[in-house]
Every structure is written in C-alpha cells, then in structure tokens.
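ok so I'm stuck.
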Amino acid sequence: MPDLKSNPTAIKIGDVDYRLDFSRFPYFQAFARFQSQAQPGAELVHPPIPFFDVALRGMQDGYRHCFRAMPVDCEQLQLLCQTLSVLGVFSNDHGLDIVEELNTGILDYVLRICDKSMARDAAFKLFYHLLLGDFSEESKVKDKVCNAVSIVIKYQPEVFSMKAKRMVCAAYERRYVRTITERAALYEWEKDGNQSSSLDKDEVTTDEEEIPSLPTKNKWQTKRRRNSPNPENKKKLRNNRGEGALVPKKEP
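replied:
not stuck anymore, here's the structure
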C-alpha cells in the first residue's frame, strides 16, 4: 500500500498520470486501501472520472475556476459537482456556513481587502450546496438561502460573472422555485440594463482592484445641439436684417 502521508502519491486516472496529495481526497484514500488488499504492490489505476481536471483545478487554484472552465450548462456542472462529492472534497463543509458567510457581509470584507477571489469561490460553493448539499431544517433557512442567492446575482458584474449569476439562479430554481411567478422574480436582475453584456464573451472577471467606470454623456453638448437654429431659421434671420426686408406699414 502506498504511503498516504507522503506528498504526492502516483495514480493513473484514465489515460493520465497524476501525483496527488491523498490527504485531500478521502475517496482516493479508501480506493488505495482497497487496491492494496486486492492487488498488493500494483500500480494505482482508476477509470476516467468526469471533469476530474476541472475539479483538480478548482481545488488547487480556487473553485471560481470551475465556473470559468465549464459551459453555461447546469447538467454538466451538476456532473462536476457529483465528481467533487464522490471525491469527498466538501465532506467537511456545510451549506449553511456558506450561506451565513454571504449573509454576514463577506463581500464587503473581501472588497475592502481587494480580494474578489474569496467571494467568487464562495459563489461556486453556494452553487454546489444548492444542487447537492443538505441544509438542516431547510424550511427554516430558505429565506437565508434566498438572501444569499440575491447577494450574488445583484452584486456588481465586475465581481461575479454573468455565468456565475446564471448558474446560481439555475441551481436555486431547481431546489426551490415552484411557480412561474417565482421564476420571473428570480431572473428579474437580467432585465437590468447595467449588467455588462461584454462579460458573456469569455465570462472571465478581472481580479484587479479597480473597476472601470461607465462613460457619461456630455449633457452640455447635447443641449447645445438641440437648441441650435436650423439653416432655414438662419436664412430668415439674414433676410430680415438685410435690404428689402418687409416692414409693416404704420397707420396714418
């Protein structure tokens, strides 16, 4: 049996060789123990795991990368979440903890220290728990969950991409929305003209502190153009000032 405390441990998943820290993967710990009993000394080989590369990227660099690497497809993202669940990645996390973090002002704290990545990671964790998580006494915490979702979907697009907002909405809809009216209210934010459609191209939000400001219209120039006399008015004005201008006759 390989030494699970050594970093890392060699394993082949599908056709790809990896060296992984098994202490972060409860599933692979159990798999290695089973393999050591079934085939002592044999190389660890595991069948392909759906979206394992994306899951690994999320664990290494932050779960916000899971949104960035995946299409806007709730079915595929759910398959990714199932992979994370089987691997035991969030086995010690609780959905209500993520909800409480979002509701108690984590976004304001994150923006003060100029680290939006923490907020974006929390958005993916919220998405995961909406799909697969278990909220204790769910009927009592539904309002808190709804508020956490609202924080994500109504926050500036420079913090959360349109993809992240849509996927969080889709996960919430699957779990809670039951009527057409509720669904319309959930997606009301998409009608806001301030949402940046340019983020739909690559769905990659910026990590820099500065947020670009929207250009403002020069009201003075607009007003000046609106009040400028047209050519006909200018022609009449010149005629009235020149020779031959019509002058009303005075009564005797």
